[in-house]
Specification:
The protein is α/β, with parallel strands linked by helices. It is 42% helix and 19% strand.
Length: 495
């Protein structure tokens, strides 16, 4: 009993002390400037937003052991054929055609999905397919889910159809900043077990059709499977990948909870628009000879990052690095370059192996993402020191392409940017195609794009390609980029 009494007294004394300290804190807090208080809250929020992603995870030993660059090549022809899409009009045409050809299922994954003109084209075509009895599943990143889809009557109308299912990957929750950085960056379409399309294009006017003056030029691969089977092919791998992402607990349903007059109007508009589509894009609604429009491949290999909504092991970077080390010459397309220490080391290692590396990236004033492009101004000397040649592209449009050309055989296209976000945070897919003829086509384009670029010469002065189009920046633009150079330094990891 005495021990119990002493414990109670001790607890009571401690409570009095705590209350006294809390009272002192409240008195001091009253005199604490509100600006400092808000700044403190903002600082805490930023820490919660960034801290979980600051460390760079290592590639598991098992993955390093199992991934062999040779497995992406073959000495004989495979069953999958590939078409190359480098035009925004063709990119929309292919998608509409694929939706029309679907008999059982359509799968669409995209980072951005806007209800602009091209977005409505896609929505109308998908609705038309669903009314034929085709199962339609769409997954969109949570950032676009918040900014483009939340409350939008066209997406609400789309989600109301019986054969349509829509999910949002990692919905943005401002109360959980520690979960916000990991994003779904994959862009692909799967039709039944027969064909798919994969690349770097989002679903909006910048990438599909001729609706926007501010076009972003990108690349897609269309893959046609000549033999429908359950054997291991890239289309079966991609479909398996999708199912794993679709079934994540962080992939949440997007539902039309209540049919309103605005949604009814949007629904009617989209259904009526499908009739116009067949007139405007009549070529999409005809039979295509896939053997004629595609190229024979030796092997098609799907490369991917982890799919979880947390900080990720850089599996895709590791795979690309090993494939580059397996080559004699490397050409890289990337909208911007934001390297971490492992990536810098990777380029140093390629230089030590005497493997020449060329990078085609946007001139800072040409890029569609000035935040990402501006980091190059701060880091370009460090990048050049690795031994790579950087072509700063200025060809009248923004280059959004993510691609690698390895020697005269391997072409790799997909969603992966050469930045830390794509390496450590986002879901990413790249398609590696062993096909010399395809490689030659893209390499010819790369050679032309280099003539639309500037490159640092050995004497430290820029050398300008014959088709380089200089852009005179206003004083306001120059000031803007100067400020960005400072702002982006502490946040370059997340651009």
């Amino acid at each position: 009993m005495q021990l119990f009494h002493d414990a109670l007294v001790s607890f009571a004394e401690r409570r009095v002390i705590l209350m006294k300290h809390f009272s002192i804190f409240l008195k001091q807090f009253r005199h604490f400037p509100i600006g400092k208080c808000l700044l403190l809250i903002l600082l805490i929020y930023i820490i919660l937003l960034t801290a979980p992603y600051l460390s760079h995870k290592k590639v598991p030993d098992a993955y390093q052991k199992n991934f062999q660059p040779d497995s992406c090549y073959s000495s004989s022809a495979g069953t999958e054929r590939v078409a190359y899409i480098n035009d925004n009009d063709d990119a929309l045409l292919y998608r509409l055609h694929m939706f029309d050809q679907a008999q059982k299922e359509i799968i669409l994954s995209t980072f951005d999905f806007n209800a602009d003109k091209s977005g409505k084209d896609v929505l109308s075509a998908l609705i038309d397919a669903s009314k034929r009895g085709v199962s339609v599943r769409v997954i969109v990143d949570g950032m676009s889910g918040l900014l483009d889809m939340q409350g939008n009557p066209y997406f609400q109308a789309f989600a109301s159809y019986p054969n349509v299912s829509v999910k949002i990957y990692n919905k943005v929750n401002l109360l959980k900043p520690y979960d916000m950085q990991a994003r779904l960056h994959d862009k692909y379409v799967i039709i039944d077990q027969k064909m798919y399309l994969l690349g770097g294009r989002n679903t909006d006017n910048r990438f599909l059709g001729s609706y926007s003056k501010a076009q972003n030029i990108d690349r897609d691969f269309f893959v046609y499977n000549t033999v429908e089977s359950d054997e291991s092919t890239s289309i079966t791998e991609l479909r398996s990948y999708f199912e794993r992402v679709w079934n994540l607990k962080d992939s949440k349903d997007y539902l039309c909870k209540k049919m309103t007059s605005k949604i009814e109007t949007a629904k009617q508009e989209l259904e009526e628009h499908s009739v116009d589509l067949k007139k405007t894009f009549s070529d999409a609604y005809t039979e295509w000879n896939y053997e004629e429009i595609t190229l024979e491949t030796n092997r098609v290999t799907l490369l991917s990052n982890p799919i979880g909504t947390k900080n990720k092991e850089p599996l895709l970077w590791y795979s690309l690095q090993k494939l580059m080390e397996h080559s004699e010459q490397v050409t890289i397309y990337t909208p911007y370059i934001i390297c971490g220490k492992e990536m810098y080391q990777g380029f140093y290692d390629l230089n030590k192996l005497n493997i020449p590396v060329e990078i085609i990236t946007n001139d800072v004033s040409s890029g569609a993402n000035p935040w990402g492009c501006t980091d190059y101004l701060n880091q370009k000397e460090k990048i050049w020191d690795t031994g790579v040649k950087v072509y700063e592209f200025m060809g009248g449009h923004s280059c959004h392409t993510k691609a690698l050309l390895l020697d005269d055989r391997m072409s790799i296209v997909g969603s992966y940017n050469f930045d830390m976000r794509s390496t450590y945070q986002d879901t990413e897919l790249m398609l590696a195609v062993d096909c010399p003829e395809l490689n030659a086509i893209i390499r010819q384009e790369a050679e032309y794009d280099k003539t639309c670029s500037k490159i640092m010469g050995p004497d430290g002065d820029y050398i300008y390609g014959e088709h380089y189009k200089p852009k005179n920046l206003t004083f306001g633009k120059q000031l803007f980029y100067t400020v960005l150079c400072v702002i982006t330094i502490p946040i370059r990891r997340f651009l």
